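Q: What does the assembly look like in three dimensions?
Context provided by user:
Components: two
Sequences:
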Amino acid sequence: MPEPLTLRFHKSLYDGEAVRKAAVRFGALGTVQVADGGGDWLVTAVPLRESIRERLGDELGNHALFESILARKGMST
Amino acid sequence: MTENQLTTELAERRVRFQVDESVYDLDVIMGSAYLFLDRCYVFLDRVGDRRVQVVLRTRGAASEEELGALAGQFANELLNQALRKQIGEANGRLREYIMARALFSADGPSTIDRLLAELDAEEMASDDLDIPVPWEKPPGA
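A: Here is the predicted structure of the complete assembly.
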């Protein structure tokens, strides 16, 4: 079973709803969970295959940032 | 960024640097990051009070020169976004000023005053009752 991947998104930079949207979007590629880690949103992802582990983290991070920027501009998807 | 130059840390497919929020505010940093999302993976982190760390990770292999150039382009975009924001704010104030001048111009009568004057003039010109007044009689009539 692939090792879990943990991503940390600082709350002053990433919107909580945006991170959750990203988690839902990439949920098809593994088990993705979001937790409140105090100053950060903690995302734990277990990819379906080890080969997509790195890519899953990268793409999820980009998507969380994209949604956060839209949320800052009041333009949520 | 410190000492007037971009201080970067390079690793495989990754370049990392910090941005001072007292120089470039968060909207500027976010605006720049947005433009890089389709070129590479962008991660932001807060590493101190008013300091944001930017990590750019390329989608494929990249040389040190390419990573350095990517960071440089991001720094240029920060400047570009800051300038755009400044111009937008300045133009916003100018727009407000022009609107205020148009609505509350002190150079002449307002639209309402002009319309009232036109109505008064029309009423004076057409006296439907045709009431004779002595001061309008021609002398000797």
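Follow-up: Residues 5-72 of chain A form a domain with the Alpha-Beta Plaits fold (CATH 3.30.70).
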